[in-house]
Specification:
Layout: E1 3-6, E2 10-11, H1 16-22, E3 35-43, H2 60-68, E4 75-79, H3 80-86, H4 95-103, E5 112-115, H5 126-129, E6 136-139, H6 145-151, E7 156-159, H7 167-176, E8 181-184, H8 188-196, E9 202-208, E10 231-238, E11 241-247
Length: 251
């Protein structure tokens, strides 16, 4: 059983958990402005991966919430390194979730937007070959022309910066395509870049009860002089696993 510890402590049986995870934060502004959320898992000593992957930090509950966070997304944004490491491919949601989306006036499959400055992506990867919706690749004007041409066969390739990712240009590009609920699943460089620009609206963080040690990086990697304050919005618990949601402060 998973339970809500904050606010309003209560158990969340099947059905109630789905409603909880699909609901927007109470403090979210009622506007058509894009809302950018991130989802990460980390050990209690701050590691974002074990042996280069995040999967060993989670469990069945973490995977359940991970999938529920996708339900309301208009687009899912993922860095190229995460794509390569975590093995994305095929449908991002099961049949029940797809039906819920259609019942709620959403497309059955949220498209995937892959961020890659170098375009070091094989067009034959499952993320392209098995995609139910043509992916979007967000890249730089300096990306190799040959790789751009190859990927254009399997995805829409769009520039969102010159020599580095332009956060505002990226958000504008996604908004121009009608994407309001923008959900990202990493990786650390992507979170660090958007945090440095002050554009993280929501962060869902699973705290895994593991001590990892070693050289594993934190969930955000970027400029050392950048910080963005967040407000705790929700705490869920299953066994010794915590699920935290933070949101941008409202002023």
């Amino acid at each position: 059983m998973i339970e809500r510890l904050f606010p309003n402590p209560a158990p969340l049986p099947h059905g109630a958990l789905e409603d909880e995870m699909r609901a927007a934060p109470a403090s979210r502004p009622r506007s058509n402005a894009p809302w950018l959320s991130f989802n990460f898992v980390a050990s209690i000593d701050g590691a974002a991966t074990v042996d280069g992957r995040s999967g060993q930090l989670g469990n069945a509950w973490d995977q359940r919430l991970f999938m529920l966070l996708r339900h309301t997304a208009d687009v899912i944004v993922v860095g190229a390194q995460t794509i390569r490491a975590e093995g994305y491919g095929g449908e991002l949601l099961g049949a029940e979730a797809q039906q819920w989306r259609k019942d709620n006036w959403l497309s059955a499959h949220p498209p995937l937007a892959i961020v890659s400055g170098s375009l070091n992506l094989d067009p034959d990867m499952a993320v392209f070959a098995q995609a139910p919706v043509r992916p979007l690749v967000l890249t730089l004007e300096t990306a190799p022309a040959q790789r751009r041409e190859a990927l254009a066969e399997v995805a829409d390739v769009v520039n969102v910066g010159v020599a580095s990712l332009d956060v505002e240009r990226t958000m504008a590009e996604l908004a121009s395509r009608g994407f309001r609920n923008i959900h990202s699943e990493g990786g650390p460089t992507l979170l660090g870049t958007f945090a440095a620009a002050g554009r993280v609206d929501e962060l869902s963080l699973t705290v895994s009860p593991l001590l990892v040690g070693g050289p594993a990086r934190r969930i955000a990697h970027g400029p050392t002089d950048a910080s963005q304050g967040m407000v705790l919005d929700r705490v869920l618990k299953a066994d010794s696993m915590l699920f935290l949601r933070y949101v941008r402060p409202t002023h």
